[in-house]
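Thread title: Can someone regenerate the structure for this chain?

I was given the following input by a collaborator and told the matching structure tokens would be attached. They weren't. Posting the sequence so someone can regenerate them.
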Amino acid sequence: MSPNSLNDVLVALGLSQEAGEVWRENWPLSEASFVPDNLPFLGESFVSKACQTLKMADEVKAAFLEALSLFKKNYSLQRLAWHCHFILFKCPEEQTAKIGLWPMLPRQAGKSADMFYAVVFLSGLKHIQDIHQKLGIPEALTLDTLADLQLWIYDYHKKNGIFGFDKKGWLLNHFRGKIFKLGRLQFQPGVFPYDFHVFKNSSGQKTVMLAGANMCFRRDGMFDGTNKIFDPDGRWTSKFGIKDGHIHGYPVSPCGQALPSPIKLPISDWHEVLKKDDPVLVIHIPATGPLIHSDCGESFQQAIIFFPRYFPKIKFHALFTVTWLLDGQFEPHLPSASNIVRFLMEFYLHPVPNADDQQTFERVFGKKIDDINNAPQDTSLQRAVIQHVKNGGHWRSGGGVLFPEELKWGEQVYRKGDFNCQNFQ
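Best answer:
Regenerated them for you:
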């Protein structure tokens, strides 16, 4: 075996052969171009300049610089860093398929072992800058998007007490030009994953969502099994189809509940605008501060201009997201003027299969709460979440869509007209 063989590297770094299998297939791809002690992105000059470009906080920059000591004269670690860099930034997308399985370095590799992947991703700064520059995307937008690297380094520190980074699969989107932060929110081209059907009438003034065929719901309009709670006595199954000139189906209220009373819509007056696997812009909500309502509206306006301008081949039928923030139960538990309530009321909400409260507790409390009686109650949101659980309730993530042509932020367009929440009750 040569000193650079994968087996030797794994042994030197204290990684198991089993863990290293995720690199074996592609290991030869980076072999010929590896030169020990000659990786510029492991130099202090590169790291300092990159941190400055990304406006990293001083303590995060210090963590990066401290991590460089890991690589000095450690050819095994240099070899692995080069391999990861090569696969991420010099190979076709299919070579990154196993990135989520790349193991963290064991602590025995060094004090800053948890920063290994942060250094690897920082090495791709010029790669993504070049991609965006060729597209004409403003540099300020590029840097704002890449600020997620520091955000997740801080998140790692919050959870583990040391600086590190482990969100490899997620940040690959940022450093491969697949996601963009446009003001308060992030947007990523994707597809609508659920078998719901959204129709608009000929005038475009009415919108209704119908459940797909054979969806199983509880009597409360959530999917059976939400929060791992099943409703054997009250569950019902939806049907969907076209017959005798009408679209037959079970509606979903804009407030997010599937309803057991079927409706029919004349084909002559209604056309489908969204179905499973249709292209959408997926909305992501970074934890960067308050969800100011006007800021969110500006982000949506930017998104519907940005993608046609810089990616004219990307078509999207709607904007879509699944998040704890779209749990319609927040409406009766928070003031109507709260950012969360105002945000969710702009969407046409829908239930999500296998939804649970994991994200709710992670975002509201920073961790899972084993004993609700000992949960912090420092904010009105924390108090509302706790009180609902003490009353026997369960929080859950929800989905929501909105359409570019109906983007009248602040007007809550899906809560008006014939198919509003009240008329579905």
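Residues 180-356+396-425 form one domain.
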